[in-house]
TrEMBL record:
<dbReference type="InterPro" id="IPR002502">
    <property type="entry name" value="Amidase_domain"/>
</dbReference>
<dbReference type="GO" id="GO:0008745">
    <property type="term" value="F:N-acetylmuramoyl-L-alanine amidase activity"/>
</dbReference>
<dbReference type="InterPro" id="IPR036366">
    <property type="entry name" value="PGBDSf"/>
</dbReference>
<dbReference type="InterPro" id="IPR002477">
    <property type="entry name" value="Peptidoglycan-bd-like"/>
</dbReference>
<keyword id="KW-0961">Cell wall biogenesis/degradation</keyword>
<dbReference type="GO" id="GO:0009253">
    <property type="term" value="P:peptidoglycan catabolic process"/>
</dbReference>
<dbReference type="InterPro" id="IPR036365">
    <property type="entry name" value="PGBD-like_sf"/>
</dbReference>
<dbReference type="InterPro" id="IPR036505">
    <property type="entry name" value="Amidase/PGRP_sf"/>
</dbReference>
<feature type="signal peptide">
    <location>
        <begin position="1"/>
        <end position="22"/>
    </location>
</feature>
<dbReference type="InterPro" id="IPR051206">
    <property type="entry name" value="NAMLAA_amidase_2"/>
</dbReference>
<dbReference type="Pfam" id="PF01510">
    <property type="entry name" value="Amidase_2"/>
</dbReference>
<protein>
    <recommendedName>
        <fullName>N-acetylmuramoyl-L-alanine amidase</fullName>
        <ecNumber>3.5.1.28</ecNumber>
    </recommendedName>
</protein>
<feature type="domain" description="N-acetylmuramoyl-L-alanine amidase">
    <location>
        <begin position="38"/>
        <end position="184"/>
    </location>
</feature>
<keyword id="KW-0378">Hydrolase</keyword>
<dbReference type="GO" id="GO:0009254">
    <property type="term" value="P:peptidoglycan turnover"/>
</dbReference>
<keyword id="KW-0732">Signal</keyword>
<dbReference type="Pfam" id="PF01471">
    <property type="entry name" value="PG_binding_1"/>
</dbReference>
Length: 284
């Protein structure tokens, strides 16, 4: 077991020419058995490994969520139950993985030129079925109010401690748009942003980029691809609405325009993307 030895004394050493060396401050040595580590000289050139905060839904119930995330091949740092319990009036979140450990929640993923987002992120899973299939298509399941309240409190704390940028608070579908849809269009991104959690475009800037055109009119696919890449998405730069581009646009719309996320490259999507780049990637 590591022993921490506090060296409270200092040694005043004089050289043969009579030079006096500055006193060394009290230091902490960590005993590693056959060697010791001196931690008294921390470098200023360092930062936290955590750069991203990723939200998910579990797509299964509470019991199955806990089983899969603790005994399966995936994990997350935190799990928010469908109806969080309270202790002394405070909602309780389940921590499954310590924040200084890597959880297996992101899978094959990328954002802003970085891959393997598991390495640099904290993952929050929320118990939610995601969607139910119906004759009219997918019916997306709303989150319970107590879940989003707890998610906001947890997220604000994590963001403050690691100084996570707004554009790095993300959906699983943002970092893996070709294979994931969570946390889905029912996740309250706009309300979260109003509480200082994540990014959201300024309405006036979006209107400026619309230039008086109808929101559903055709957008410029090239501009959309360029803007989404600048913001952080991994997206082709083909100038055409290929299958991969459509999937990425749909993921973007699910986050920033959940009322319509068909993947169509319309003018409003272009305006929102450019407004986000202006606000978060090119601040004046």
């Amino acid at each position: 077991m590591k022993k921490i030895i506090l060296l409270l004394g200092v040694l005043g050493l004089a050289g043969c020419a009579g030079h006096h060396y500055a006193e060394k401050p009290a230091t902490t040595l960590i005993d590693h058995g056959d060697y010791a580590v001196d931690t008294s000289s921390p470098s200023q050139s360092q930062d936290d490994r955590v750069r991203f905060l990723i939200f998910h839904y579990t797509a299964v119930d509470d019991n199955e969520s806990l089983r899969l995330l603790t005994h399966g091949s995936v994990s997350a740092h935190y799990l928010i139950p469908s109806h969080p319990t309270e202790i002394h009036g405070k909602p309780v979140v389940l921590q499954l993985v310590p924040e200084n450990k890597r959880a297996w929640h992101a899978g094959v993923s990328g954002w802003a030129g970085r891959n393997n987002i598991n390495d640099t992120s904290i993952g929050i899973e929320i118990v939610n079925d995601g969607f139910h299939e119906s004759p009219t298509g997918k019916q997306w399941i709303p989150y319970h109010k107590e879940q989003t309240v707890l998610a906001a409190r947890l997220a604000r704390d994590i963001i403050a401690r690691y100084q996570i940028k707004p554009q790095n608070v993300l959906a699983h579908s943002d970092i893996a748009p070709l294979r994931k849809t969570d946390p889905g269009p029912q996740f309250p991104w706009r309300e979260m942003a109003q509480q200082g959690i994540g990014a959201w475009p300024d309405a006036a800037t979006v209107d400026n980029y619309l230039q008086g055109k109808h929101r559903w009119s055709a957008g410029n696919v090239t501009l959309i691809q360029q803007a989404l890449a600048a913001y952080g998405y991994t997206i082709p730069q083909t100038g055409t609405l290929d299958k991969e581009t459509l999937r990425v646009i749909s993921a973007f719309q699910m986050h920033f325009r959940p009322s319509n996320f068909t993947g169509v490259a319309d003018k409003e999507t272009e305006a929102i993307a450019r407004a986000l780049v202006e606000k978060y990637c090119n601040p004046t």
